[in-house]
Specification:
Layout: H1 3-35, H2 40-46, H3 48-68, H4 70-88, H5 97-125, H6 131-162, H7 165-186, H8 208-228, H9 231-239, H10 244-263, H11 265-268, H12 276-298, H13 303-331, H14 338-387, E1 394-396, E2 402-404
Antiparallel strand pairs: 1-2
Helix pairs in contact: 1-2, 1-5, 1-6, 1-7, 2-14, 3-4, 3-5, 3-14, 4-5, 4-7, 5-6, 5-14, 6-10, 6-13, 8-13, 8-14, 10-13, 12-13, 12-14
């Protein structure tokens, strides 16, 4: 097996294992603390530090990865996740809001260190000018990760129902620790470590294209999480009367479907690697869907049918948007700047998730699921409008030369 493919599979396998725990812990916390009597807004607040420290981690993590190597930042992320899982596996009396928020903060740092390292690492494994292979590898990594996150949702809900909160956390921690040891032994040292040590002041991107793309990403992922993180699972459980395992299974199927669509994005786009035009068109197409779901619920249509059909349509179109963005940020970054650009970009992604998470709890508590959907539509509109700012403007490649920031000008 070629070294590049072998290392790609190792990175993907480690990312998969981490993603299983990330999806499971999300579902465990939402359902368990809702069962304990926490309001939707209080449940959302448990994720406040998770998302906030994701912003900080993405900003600093790209700089750190360039200095110490992406394999090391990936394994630091795995280790922190094991600690976060173990912290939550304590007696119920210890689980104060502040304590859970602290554990979630560690999990947020862990998640974004792992994600930044994996996605930036793929760029380094693909030969220059191999845009089609890069699009396929990024789409496969991102799509498979989301499919596994869906499995994690289901795993968390099932473990909660049949084993309990503490037992589920201990199982997840032990499994991730085993994967950490294997990947630490097999991955090459120093991957992504640059010869020139970047200064901390270089954290923020000086490329207009990266900045516009990051701003659009903020609102794109905020639009998803406004109704998906707290509002939807609480609505399914408390209003429609679904069981924990049913909620987990449905959300798992949705995320798996979403991940499959992401992985198939190169086929859906007929093998053409995307440009800024692709990003604009799919963003405006997404806007129609939350509006249609909200109107259908307001008209009194049967909610189970509306939610199931609407969510899967939303997921398909959102998946293409996400795959296009994930490719563009990697393709538009030079090899020596990829970890820093990806870190900056996913800082915006984490900021959107933070805004969406907080709004999901507050809007659901005050305006219900329909209110969440209307807010989602506003965020999609803002993402689409920001995508209009994407131009084939100039950015600097890894050697400081001027280059067209669209990937070879191809669609």
């Amino acid at each position: 097996m070629q070294p590049g493919l072998r290392n790609y599979l190792l990175i993907t396998g480690g990312y998969w294992a981490f993603t299983l725990t990330d999806g499971a812990i999300r579902m465990l916390v939402v359902l368990y603390f809702h069962q304990l009597g926490y309001s939707p807004f209080e449940v959302a607040m448990l994720f406040l530090f998770y998302e906030f420290f994701g912003i900080v981690t993405n900003l600093v993590g790209g700089w750190l990865g360039a200095r110490i190597g992406l394999n090391l930042t990936m394994h630091i992320g795995m280790g922190l996740q094991v600690v976060a899982l173990a912290m939550l596996a304590v007696p119920e009396a210890w689980l104060s809001v502040a304590y859970v928020m602290l554990a979630q903060a560690l999990s947020g740092v862990a998640k974004d260190l792992n994600k930044m390292s994996a996605k930036a690492g793929v760029k380094l494994l693909v030969p220059r000018e191999a845009d089609s292979r890069l699009f396929k590898w990024v789409a496969l990594l991102t799509g498979s990760k989301n499919a596994l996150k869906g499995v994690g949702f289901f795993l968390g809900a099932v473990l909660l129902e049949y084993i309990g909160f503490r037992g589920a956390l201990l199982i997840l921690a032990a499994g991730l620790l085993a994967v950490l040891i294997v990947t630490a032994v097999l991955l090459p040292q120093g991957m992504g470590k640059t010869k020139a040590k970047p200064k901390f002041t270089q954290l923020f991107s000086n490329s207009a294209a990266i900045n516009w793309l990051s701003a659009a990403r903020f609102f794109l992922f905020g639009a998803r999480d406004i109704w998906f993180v707290v509002g939807l699972p609480v609505f399914l459980f408390s209003v429609l009367g679904w069981r924990f395992s049913e909620v987990g299974a449905f959300l798992a199927l949705w995320v798996i479907f979403y991940g499959i669509i992401q992985s198939c994005a190169p086929l859906i786009l007929r093998g053409r690697h995307p440009s800024e035009t692709t990003a604009k068109g799919w963003a405006f197409g997404l806007l129609i869907i939350p509006v249609a779901i909200a109107l259908a619920l307001q008209q009194g249509m049967e909610p189970n049918r509306v939610i199931i059909i609407g969510l899967f349509v939303f997921g398909a179109v959102f998946a293409i948007n996400s795959a296009v963005h994930s490719y563009l940020i990697v393709a538009w970054s030079g090899h020596d700047k990829v970890s820093m650009n990806v870190g900056f970009y996913y800082m915006a992604n984490a900021g959107g998730r933070l805004a969406g998470t907080v709004l999901s709890g507050w809007v659901y508590q005050t305006q219900g699921l329909v209110g969440c959907l209307w807010w989602s539509a506003v965020f999609v509109l803002l993402a689409a409008l920001l995508s209009l700012g994407l131009r084939r403007s100039e950015s600097a490649d890894e050697d400081g030369r001027s280059t067209d920031c669209s990937p070879r000008g191809s669609e």
